[in-house]
Specification:
The chain is α/β, with parallel strands linked by helices. Helices cover 39% and strands 11% of the residues. A four-stranded parallel beta sheet has the order 3-2-5-6. Strands 1-4 form a two-stranded antiparallel sheet. The chain is globular, with a radius of gyration of 17 Å.
Length: 221
């Protein structure tokens, strides 16, 4: 499998690509895609990086697993392809944006528009087998994405990290909070959101307040 990833990331992550765990991971992914239906499509596995080069990252949102239904996953966490119904978590994300910023609910759940503005939409695991949530966990993706987060934390400054839910909070343990802005809340999934752990977090307006204070362009959510 050729690694189709933006050149800025290829430079930053060059050490990872030569480590035994990564070579084993790519072997596993090749076998899975050959034998089963897997998501996202092969060319979109690294879409989060290709839409958001390393030198343009200003916000990081951490997800867990790609959607495992047909035509949903497009390589960006929480995002779906154009024309696909919004999954429940994405519905709640858009509801919070509407409440927080007064923006209308968009017509598409494709979040490439965020990624192209410098929002890295990073799932902890980048692939999954159709209909089997978590089927590609503990194969090496988590080691790779931990390295991604550490590179951002160590080599950049004034990044806003949005950590939604317990998994993302653990995943973000290595972030240097003296250098970066870390906003935490419950997960936007209905189970968490309906218990009052998501709605009202105002993460989208808070992100823009921080970026503006640092002289950086705000995100058009």
């Amino acid at each position: 499998m050729n690694i189709h990833i933006d050149p800025t990331w290829k430079t930053v992550l060059s050490e990872e690509f030569t480590k035994p765990y990564f070579e084993n991971l790519i072997g596993f992914v090749k076998e899975e895609y050959a034998a089963n239906t897997c998501y996202p499509p092969g060319p979109e596995i690294f879409a989060a990086f290709n839409h958001c080069p390393f030198d343009q990252v200003k916000v990081v949102i951490i997800g867990q697993d790609p959607y495992h239904g047909p035509k949903q996953a497009n390589g960006l966490c929480f995002s779906v392809h154009d024309g696909i119904p919004f999954p429940p978590s994405l519905v709640n994300i858009f509801r919070e944006i509407h409440t927080d910023l007064g923006k209308d609910i968009p017509l598409t759940g494709n979040l490439e528009r965020w990624a192209d503005q410098g929002v890295l939409l990073l799932n902890a695991t980048l692939t999954v087998r159709k209909g089997e949530a978590g089927s590609h966990q503990n194969r090496g993706w988590e080691i790779f994405t931990d390295a991604v987060i550490k590179k951002i934390s160590d080599q950049k400054k004034d990044i806003v990290f949005l950590l939604w839910g317990g998994f993302a909070k653990k995943k973000g343990a290595s972030i240097n909070r003296q250098v970066h802005e870390v906003l935490e809340s419950g997960h936007p999934s209905p189970l968490s959101a309906n218990k009052g752990h998501w709605f009202g977090n105002k993460h989208f307006s808070q992100t823009n307040v921080f970026l503006k204070a640092k002289g950086l362009p705000e995100v058009n959510w």
